Backbone:
């Protein structure tokens, strides 16, 4: 009953086209944001901030970036971590080399740097498609990490190639506690997520989706393929770049090029697919799932095994964790190939009609 | 010049090792359009099963036969419990499912057989052939030669299997169009099960050879990374492509690692080695720009 | 089916809520153990963490440290930085203020924990790995790069080679083959400096991760024909290198690995190819160390051993794990001497003890660990405290120690740390402590 659109009349085109056309959605989003900004800092422990919430938001942002490329524009990429690395190293270098540059400007420039690199590696997408493109983006993955390892200038000549992120200060306030970092990340992620949602329903977004669904057809109706695909690469890499900068500055503190390896790229791809391809919400749900599931298994399997009295060694528990993780991914795909976001949509449909069956 | 040839031969021979892994990918892609991410994990599983069984006192040939049985079971189970339920889903879902499968196998294998790094002795020494060494001062490993011989036999058998047998023809029909194949009465499930079993066999061969070279351990799953550029270069659906692609990648990668870094060093200063990680991918990428469907891949025609 | 999925999700959320609550108790010292037992380095982790946990168990069975029992909880990191941080934060919540040192056993995770551990006042022990400039305690009060750094190790190997060549390496050619990551890159500066001083030619040969194919690198070795290869590998790279060296016919006796490339896990799978291979180490293998023999008797006798594969007992990595245990427990003992016997120590108190550790020959003998690890004496200026290695050789079935403790080139290496730490302090806006006042 609560979730019913009846009685909400749209009197103008603008109202029909707004981001959240249903009033309940607007209220829910508002409440959620209020809770995230005000409620969470009151309740969450340091563990939650440093180990779950901050990485969750950052991974969600990276997943969002990949989702723009893969979900909206249909170009599969396995080089996400490399674009994050570009962002992280760019932000570090801007902070290091430009005197007095505000940190947010550094993040922004890091995003643009990543976008530029993204466009460069997006060029082959004009000719290559599908899994061929995915493997081609692996070239970006390995090449970028190699470049970061090989040019000592990029890591300020540190003998190990590791960079240590500078302190974060905005208008004299320093963000050094987990809570303040969380709020900073949250602010950036919320703004960028809303921007993405907006972008997806703009002309650009529609062009992306047309290319995704059938690029030849899109071209026929006059969508410039090159421009569309490259903007998708640019925007996607921008998001990944900012996520990478946040990853270095707000999450790990010190990063090495090898940290941005293929595993990380895959993790982010899992998030997108599990969460829901072509959905902003899906990026968040997927990030939560991939991040929380191992922690959940880790903290339940061992006690469970002990409780039943099974003589499992730690290694065995870890192996079972791998298996359960893999099995759950397959299970979810079989149950719901369109990802968690589809589950959410089904729930929403049900809610709309509730308590009536149809 | 003699060193150049040595590098070239060494490269070609390691290329064959890449091809072996790539073959497994090709088989499954050809028959079901699935990019099987779990191929690397299957290589690991197969090799670990062999050493695990040998650890229980079985002789090598028996262990190999039993491991093949295990691979067939694995293939059947995958088809029955995963693929069959995902028929008609977009390729990316199937791809993701194989990633899940990879995790599952990576947990299952060491749980069954332990995860210590173990040697596997096939009885072929990885040593230079003395005759070539003395005569031409060229190092060619006996092991590598045997490996490429095995690969050649494998490819020949597969080619005959695909071209001449009933099942092979059915396989090709399935690869062209699932629905059409089903409608003319080709049993899709059985075909898939067979393909997964054959891919399991290829993984077993690759696992034995790689395992005897690097030790049987988790890192065998990384062999898949060496196979991907080979696939791209050769085309996902071509057995011949896997072999030729492997040879090209192997040779060019070795030559590049030896001759490019000194050039770059002269240009920029600093040390630029270790390009093997990305060079094959960039090469494959450049190649794709010229021929987007790979060397032997079927040309894809878009219909609106 | 969909309902099941939703139910699983709901259960997950509820279970997660319970993570991260403290359970510090009196008379216990909690060890957060960030272990890895699966993934590419899982086999190494089994022995390392097995050894460490067995030693803690052993200490408990002998009555603890003045009655204080060691407790621990493991968290699987899979050698992955993000998971390592999550594990650290989770176990930190359980340890509260009374945390024993953390041994992440991964350079990547160590780097990610440097800032966090300093903020939380939890000692971060990087024994034979990790951030090397943390040797300078004035900048890194809670990070301890103990026993040895890669730079000291590399210079010690050079010194050994020099001794082998009647005191001069002039005109020799030494190849440095390394894992192309922070781990492999750290020693380069030191080796370059050594090359200048000793007038040998240094050829650098990087190997891309993971290093399961080294044809090109060893062809390069064949082309350059170096007198020695100093080898900095990890994981699958080690077995592959030994096999590849055999393939090109490079004598294994002239190939000297780092201490992460010199364990049974590296040599056994390489079979015949490993025979004669040398490596540096800061702890010896074997069950003839009295302490290790006693652990087998006491801990495994009571069926409380951690290893599932008992044959690892006394292996290089197992004994290294035991050495980790010794360092941590000795620090706790030292802290109790100062701050109150039989009490649970705080992370800060243990950090003080790690900084003032004096594990001399007499103490090692009392522990039954003579020769297992070098004597260690740390201070605020020098968190390393030793920098000594032994050279060992694989005889086809076991590691045989070939030399006594060899010192690294401290005059050359330590100023590098000092400069690097100063740079770190500047970047991070840290004011270094005055080591003279820190007592």
Residues:
């Amino acid at each position: 009953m609560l979730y019913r659109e009846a009685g909400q009349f749209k009197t103008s085109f603008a109202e029909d086209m707004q981001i959240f056309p249903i009033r309940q959605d607007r209220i829910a989003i508002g409440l959620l944001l209020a809770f995230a900004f005000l409620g969470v800092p009151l309740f969450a422990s340091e563990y939650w901030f440093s180990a779950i919430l901050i990485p969750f938001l950052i991974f969600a942002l990276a997943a969002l970036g990949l989702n723009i490329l893969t979900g909206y524009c249909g170009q599969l990429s396995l080089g996400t971590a490399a674009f994050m690395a570009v962002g992280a190293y760019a932000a570090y270098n801007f902070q290091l080399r430009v005197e007095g540059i505000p940190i947010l400007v550094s993040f922004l420039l890091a995003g643009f740097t990543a976008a530029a690199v993204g466009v460069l590696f997006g060029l082959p997408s004009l000719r290559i498609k599908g899994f061929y493109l995915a493997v081609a983006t692996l070239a970006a993955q390995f090449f970028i990490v190699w470049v970061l390892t090989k040019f000592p200038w990029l890591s300020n000549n540190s003998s190990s190639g590791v960079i240590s992120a500078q302190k974060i200060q905005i208008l004299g306030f320093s963000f050094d506690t987990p809570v303040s970092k969380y709020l900073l990340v949250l602010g950036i992620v919320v703004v960028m997520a809303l921007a993405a949602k907006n972008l997806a329903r703009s002309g650009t977004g529609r062009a992306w989706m047309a290319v995704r669904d059938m690029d030849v057809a899109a071209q026929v109706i006059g969508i410039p393929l090159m421009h569309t695909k490259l903007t998708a690469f640019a925007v996607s890499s921008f998001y990944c770049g900012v996520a990478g900068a946040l990853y270095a500055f707000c999450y790990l503190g010190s990063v090495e090029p090898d940290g941005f390896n293929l595993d990380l790229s895959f993790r982010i791809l899992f998030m997108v697919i599990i969460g829901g391809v072509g959905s902003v919400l899906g990026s968040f749900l997927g990030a939560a799932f991939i991040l929380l599931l191992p922690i959940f298994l880790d903290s339940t399997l061992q006690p469970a095994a002990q409780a039943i009295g099974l003589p499992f060694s730690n290694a065995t528990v870890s192996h079972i964790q791998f298996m359960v993780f893999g099995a759950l991914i397959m299970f979810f795909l079989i149950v719901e190939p369109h990802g968690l976001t589809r589950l959410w949509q089904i729930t929403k449909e049900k809610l709309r009609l509730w308590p009536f069956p149809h | 010049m003699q060193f150049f040839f040595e590098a070239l031969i060494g490269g070609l021979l390691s290329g064959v090792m890449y091809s072996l892994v790539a073959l497994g990918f090709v088989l499954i892609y050809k028959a079901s359009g699935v990019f099987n991410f779990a191929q690397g994990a299957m290589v690991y599983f197969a090799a670990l099963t062999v050493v695990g069984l040998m650890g229980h006192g079985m002789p090598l040939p028996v262990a190999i036969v039993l491991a093949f049985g295990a691979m067939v079971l694995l293939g059947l189970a995958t088809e029955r419990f995963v693929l069959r339920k995902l028929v008609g889903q977009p390729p990316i879902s199937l791809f993701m499912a194989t990633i899940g499968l990879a995790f599952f196998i990576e947990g299952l294998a060491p749980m069954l057989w332990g995860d210590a790094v173990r040697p596997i002795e096939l009885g072929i020494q990885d040593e230079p052939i003395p005759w070539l060494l003395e005569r031409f001062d060229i190092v060619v490993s006996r092991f590598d030669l045997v490996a490429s011989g095995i690969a050649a036999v494998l490819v020949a058998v597969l080619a005959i299997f695909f071209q001449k047998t009933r099942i092979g023809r059915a396989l090709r029909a399935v690869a062209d169009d699932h629905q059409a194949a089903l409608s003319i009465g080709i049993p899709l499930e059985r075909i898939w099960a067979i393909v997964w079993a054959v891919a399991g066999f290829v993984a077993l061969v690759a696992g034995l050879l790689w395992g005897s070279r690097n030790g049987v351990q988790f890192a065998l799953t990384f062999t898949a990374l060496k196979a991907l550029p080979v696939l791209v270069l050769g085309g996902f659906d071509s057995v011949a492509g896997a072999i030729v692609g492997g040879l090209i990648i192997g040779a060019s990668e070795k030559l590049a690692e030896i001759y490019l870094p000194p050039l770059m060093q002269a240009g920029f200063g600093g040390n630029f080695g270790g390009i093997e990680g990305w060079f094959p991918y960039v090469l494959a990428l450049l190649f794709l720009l010229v021929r987007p469907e790979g060397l032997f891949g079927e040309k894809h025609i878009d219909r609106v | 089916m969909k309902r099941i999925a939703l139910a699983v999700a709901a259960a997950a959320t509820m279970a997660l809520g319970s993570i991260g609550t403290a359970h510090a108790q009196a008379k216990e010292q909690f060890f957060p153990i960030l272990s890895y037992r699966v993934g590419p380095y899982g086999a190494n982790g089994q022995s390392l963490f097995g050894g460490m946990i067995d030693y803690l168990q052993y200490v408990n069975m002998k009555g603890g440290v003045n009655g204080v029992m060691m407790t621990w909880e493991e968290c699987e990191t899979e050698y992955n930085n993000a998971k390592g941080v999550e594990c650290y934060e989770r176990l930190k919540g359980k340890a509260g203020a009374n945390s024993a040192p953390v041994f992440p056993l991964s350079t990547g995770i160590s780097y990610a924990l440097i800032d966090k551990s300093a903020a939380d006042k939890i000692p971060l022990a990087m024994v034979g790995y990790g951030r090397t400039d943390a040797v300078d305690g004035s900048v890194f009060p809670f990070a301890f790069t103990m026993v040895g750094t890669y730079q000291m190790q590399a210079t010690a190997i050079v010194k050994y080679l020099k001794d082998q060549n009647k005191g001069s390496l002039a005109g020799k050619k030494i190849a440095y083959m390394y894992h192309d990551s922070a781990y492999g890159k750290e020693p380069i500066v030191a080796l370059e400096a050594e090359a200048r001083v000793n007038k040998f030619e240094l050829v650098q040969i990087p190997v891309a991760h993971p290093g399961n194919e080294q044809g090109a690198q060893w062809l390069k070795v064949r082309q350059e024909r170096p007198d020695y290869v100093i080898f900095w590998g990890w994981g699958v790279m080690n077995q592959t290198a030994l096999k590849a060296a055999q393939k090109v016919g490079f004598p294994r006796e002239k190939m000297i690995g780092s201490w992460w490339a010199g364990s049974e896990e590296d040599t056994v799978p390489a079979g015949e190819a490993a025979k004669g291979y040398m490596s540096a180490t800061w702890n010896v293998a074997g069950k003839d160390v009295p302490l290790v023999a006693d652990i087998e008797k006491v801990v495994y006798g009571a069926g409380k051993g951690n290893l599932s594969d008992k044959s690892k007992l006394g292996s290089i990595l197992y004994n290294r794990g035991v050495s980790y245990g010794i360092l941590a427990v000795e620090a706790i003992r030292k802290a109790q001497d100062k701050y109150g016997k039989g009490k649970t120590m705080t992370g800060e108190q243990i950090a003080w003890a790690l900084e003032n550790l004096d594990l001399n020959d007499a103490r090692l003998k009392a522990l039954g660990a003579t020769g297992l690890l070098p004597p260690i004496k740390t201070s605020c200026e020098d968190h390393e405290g030793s920098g000594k290695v032994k050279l060992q050789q694989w005889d086809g079935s076991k590691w045989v120690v070939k030399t006594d403790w060899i010192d690294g080139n401290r005059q050359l290496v330590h100023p590098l740390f000092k400069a690097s730490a100063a740079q770190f302090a500047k970047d991070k806006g840290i004011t270094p402590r005055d080591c003279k006042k820190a007592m």
The CA atoms of residues 161 and 181 of chain B lie 18 Å apart. The first helix of chain B runs from residue 2 to 32. Chain B touches chain C through 47 residues (CB under 8 Å).
